[in-house]
Amino acid sequence: MIKLKRILVPTDFSDFSKHALRYGCEFARRFSAELHLLNVVENIYPIVAEPGMAMPAAGEYLADLQKSAEQAIEQFPQPDWAEGIPVTRTVQAGTPFLEVIRYAKDMDIDLIVIGTHGRSGLVHVLMGSVAEKVVRKSPCPVLTVRPEGHDFVMP
Questions:
Q1: What single DSSP character describes residue 50?
Q2: Rg of the Cα trace of the chain?
Q3: What is the mean pLDDT of residues 97-117?
Q4: Whole domain around residue 113: which residue ranges?
């Protein structure tokens, strides 16, 4: 029998990750599991500012991003989606796929539910895919949720 105790839903606050979050909430409810939400603030700072553009110090920039993400993650999931589900919300800085993998290992996650942007072709080659890297490196099963995919149908 499959036992899911901890389910991780990485989120970038996009509609794609909200769609995956809905799946994560439903799995958590069905398996009486903990739901873990993770947002990773990418430590990317412009090396060369545009001429005449005032830039905050790198430390302030990252701290501002992290504070904004911490405020945003508190709004997830929607109350009716998570009713009765224990939710842990975490914001970390780093490379998204590495932090998702690290979190899954550290927290002994049983399932990762991650949204995909549905990109293909040259855009996918140039940008890569966090979801694809998570699938390849994950210590546990990963459910990828496509934006145009099947929705839950309530009886």
A1: P
A2: 17
A3: 93
A4: 1-28+78-88+107-128+141-148
